[in-house]
Design brief:
single chain; alpha/beta; 2 domains
Length: 302
């Protein structure tokens, strides 16, 4: 009988389920090596974790930063909606990262300088004597009427002055803009245009201001400017002797702003100066326009 033992074949399933036996000495050595590693990891974890006090302050700072960011966003929205040109001040209060982010999210209105208003040109008031009513003024037997002369000359003077950049009002004899109580019509200068009676024993023009003028020196300068320019254009003489209270107390001189310089001109006599008043109206209008402009430009007209 053969006593030699045959080798036994191991069951694979049994070998997989069986746990390898580790000698007791090996387990102790492994534990000894692992313990320092665990200590180091614990110390590193404790070092990276914030302390309770530090954690509280970090939380507070985070809340404040969030509140500031929300406030900046809502402030910028408010200013964008209302159009108030101060959103940059709100953005400056936001945290640094949001200062560059907010303008890309919200359209920020840019402030535009307020344009300086352009001053209006001076206003000239021209009264077309006897226009707008039933009274035509002086008239001649052949049908020449004062109102026809004054209206035509006033219109021509208006055209000349407007071409030079002035604003011009033509006013009727009893224009509603005149008011003895309000006196609120305030041109830079007013000139009433009339013509004298249809007589043949006198010739010439005349210019006068109100006898109770609020600014006599300024209105005397207006009289000089109109008189000298009209004389040069019309070639008519100055007929000083026929200036009456009908001129110096002319009603429309008392119905405008007292600070507005004003005067009245009689273009000539419908009888003796008929040829000039009928055929040279453009020259008469030029004399008036030149005189008014010289006055507005500050000339002394000496």
């Amino acid at each position: 009988m053969n006593d030699e033992r045959r080798p036994t074949t191991a069951d694979p399933s049994t070998s997989l389920r069986a746990s390898p036996r580790v000698p007791h000495e090996s387990r102790n050595l492994s534990s000894a090596i692992e313990t320092p590693n665990r200590v180091r990891r614990a110390m590193k974890s404790n070092a990276s974790a914030p302390s309770p006090i530090r954690r509280v302050w970090l939380e507070r700072f985070a809340r404040l930063a969030l509140i500031a960011a929300i406030g900046a966003v809502f402030g910028a929205l408010w200013f964008a909606v209302t159009g108030t040109p101060r959103p940059a001040q709100v953005i400056a209060l936001a945290p640094a990262p949001l200062q560059t982010l907010i303008p890309t999210l919200i359209p920020i209105p840019t402030s535009t300088p307020t344009p300086t208003p352009t001053p209006l040109p001076p206003l000239v008031g021209l009264v077309a004597g006897h226009s707008g009513g039933e009274d035509p003024g002086a008239n001649c037997p052949d049908g020449l009427r004062e109102v026809d002369v004054t209206t035509d000359v006033a219109r021509r003077a208006k055209t000349l002055l407007e071409a030079r950049g002035y604003r011009v009002d033509i006013l009727a004899e009893f224009d509603p803009r005149f008011s003895a109580t309000k006196r609120d019509y305030a041109p830079n200068v007013l000139l009433a245009i009339h013509a004298d009676s249809c007589v043949y024993y006198a010739s010439g023009y005349k210019v006068a201001r109100a006898s109770n003028s609020a600014s006599p020196q300024e209105e005397d300068r207006l009289v000089r400017c109109v008189s000298s320019s009209y004389a040069a254009a019309s070639q008519l003489p100055f007929h000083e002797g026929s200036i009456t209270t009908a001129m110096t107390l002319y009603h429309n001189l008392m119905k405008i702003d007292p600070k507005s310089p004003a005067a009245i001109i009689e273009l000539g006599f419908l009888g003796s100066d008929r040829a000039t008043l009928v055929n040279k109206r453009e020259q008469l209008a030029l004399g008036i326009a030149n005189g008014v402009e010289r006055f507005l430009q500050g000339s002394g007209c000496q």
